[in-house]
Amino acid sequence: MNPIVYLIPCHCVIAKSGEIHRYRWGTARKKAIIGWEAAGAR
């Protein structure tokens, strides 16, 4: 759970280890959203 979702959207939260996991709609979607944002497609 992300207790500060109003400051940091859930898909932006990454584990201390750097692992991407525990996203409500699945890891693949979380990776896609992060990649889309990194490409500057905002």
Record the SSE blueprint.
Layout: H1 27-38
What does this structure look like?
The chain is mainly α and 42 residues long. The protein has one domain (1-42). It has one helix and no strands. The longest helix has 12 residues, at 27-38. The protein starts with 26 loop residues before the first helix and ends with a helix.
Task: State the oligomer.
Answer: single chain
- Indicate the radius of gyration in whole angstroms: 10 Å
Q: Percent range for helical residues?
A: 25-40%
Number of strands: 0
* Spans of at least 5 consecutive residues with low confidence: none
Along the chain, the helix and strand elements come as H
Helix/strand class? mainly alpha
Identify the notable features of this structure and list them briefly.
42 residues; mainly alpha; 29% helix; 0% strand; globular
Short structural summary:
This protein is mainly α and 42 residues long. It is built from one helix and no strands.
